[in-house]
Amino acid sequence: MLFRDAFKTSTRALAHGKMRSLLTMLGIVIGIASVIIVMSLGASAEYYIVGQVQSFGSDLISINPGVPVAGGAPAQAAGVVIKTLVKQDVNSISKEPSVKLVSANVTGQATIIYGNKSKSVLWSATDPSMFKMINLSFQSGHPFTDADLNSYNKVIILGSQLAKDLFGNVSPLGKYVRLKDFNFLVTGVLDPKGAGIFSFDNYAVIPLTVGQKQILGVDYYQEVDVKSDPAYTTGFVKERIISVLRQNHHITDPAKDDFTVQSMEDALKTLGNITSILTLFLSAIAAISLIVGGIGIMNIMLVSVTERTKEIGLRKAVGATDRDILKQFLIESVLLTFTGGIIGIAIGAAVVGLAYFALTRFFSIAWVFAFPPGAVGLALFVSAGAGIAFGIYPARKAGKKNPIDALRYE
After folding, report:
1. What secondary structure letter does DSSP report for 259?
2. b/e map of 168-202 (b: 16 or more CB within 10 Å)?
3. φ/ψ (deg, to 5) at 100
């Protein structure tokens, strides 16, 4: 039997039982759609995170106290209080010719109050260099100055959403808000950035001296950020910072470092590894439904072989070989899985598109629509492979039937 004839026979058989064919494909459709959705959303998340990090510039270097704990997270993220970064470190780093800007900060969470309105917010205490370092622009007002820092002036910068929540459509400039038992004068409102991992829309920013000395009562920093001079490579600046900190902290053995220096390039690599591992893990979970779908196809094909025993006997009686019968049932299996794969790809693309629309339209997130061609190729390959893998046994069973016994089958 020619392949063309076997193909026509297989399509007629599948068309004869449309509902059975659709139900048989359902497992493959769900599996392929799940894999497409997970891989596409994983790629979109990676592009989004990388874009957020790059928006602050590739020349930024962050310094955190302590060494990373298991998983690569900063030690203080695990609730460990480390006091190794101090003013002397900032002064020493700022003297380096390869360093353009240095900004230290401490952060906390508190309730901010204006009139009868209150909101729990994250506040960041930093110095004026931070506004230049990460390109924060103002909707109204202006940043605080070094004079505010040195005089312990209680001034505050509000994120755009925070200002709207507290003041509505009224300008907050010149008004006082209460934070941690202190009254702060609002001198500026930041431009809205929209939802994002580095958005300041719901932040309050105050002078470093006020946050460090008067609110927290500490003499150390939780983080120091550095902007490297364009004339030097980030790698060189990073090495100079490490050298300065080791000298200040009297460290001769690198294994005993009490700080972590990480460039944006390092952060991007770490984030890329995390998102890739998560995508792979979730794809593996989604792929389980492909196995379930494949087993379902094998079961249905075995039932079909039993139901069509007389047909198989008749075909063999008029000259069909074992190979012809095997070919026919194998084509049916591959057609089911391949068609299911195409439907699954279409459904997956639709879901990814809807997610993109919802995130950009209703949540103002700068999401990226990513539909990797590799995911489509993998889906088609896996679906066709599943058809062969799970269809070969029923097809061989059909091909080996004795024609006389098949014709006698009731």
Report:
1. E
2. eeeebbeeebebbeeebbbbbbbeebeebeebbbb
3. -95, -45
Q: DSSP states of 90-152 as a string?
A: HHHHHT-TTEEEEEEEEEEEEEEEETTEEEEEEEEEE-THHHHHTT--EEEE----HHHHHTT
Which residues share a beta bridge with 190? Answer: 138
**In the chain, where are the structural domains located?**
3-53+270-408, 83-257
Q: Which single residue is written with the structure tokens 């946050």?
A: 211
Residues 199 and 363: their CA atoms lie apart, in Å, by 13
Residue 44's Cβ-side half-sphere holds a number of Cα atoms within 13 Å equal to: 21
Look at strands 117-126 and 203-207 and give their pairing. parallel
DSSP 226: E
Name the residue type at position 177. Answer: V
Written as tens digits, the pLDDT of the chain (410 aa) is 555 655 666 676 666 667 777 877 887 888 888 888 888 888 888 788 777 776 666 788 999 998 866 545 556 655 567 889 999 999 999 999 999 999 999 999 999 999 999 999 999 999 999 998 888 899 999 999 999 999 999 999 999 999 999 999 999 999 999 999 899 999 999 998 765 556 788 999 999 999 999 999 999 999 999 999 989 998 999 999 999 999 999 999 988 898 999 888 777 777 777 777 877 787 777 677 777 777 777 777 777 777 777 777 777 777 777 777 777 778 877 888 888 888 988 999 999 999 988 888 887 677 888 887 777 777 777 777 777 777 777 777 777 777 666 566 55
Contact 273, 6 (CB under 8 A): no
> What whole-number distance in Å separates Cα of residue 107 and Cα of residue 68?
19
Let me know: does 62 contact 320? Beta carbons within 8 Å: no
187 φ, ψ to 5°?
-115, -10
Nearest to 333 by CA among 46, 97, 21: 21
The CA distances from residue 154 to 162, 183, 211, in Å, are 18, 7, 9
Return the residue matching tokens 């470093």. Answer: 208
Closest by Cα among 126, 81, 75, 87 to 103:
126
d(CA 11, CA 87): 77
Helix pair angle (264-307, 309-317), 10° resolution:
70
Q: Residues in the chain, how many?
A: 410
> How many angstroms separate the Cα of 76 from the Cα of each of 62, 83, 256, 259, 359?
14, 10, 17, 11, 31
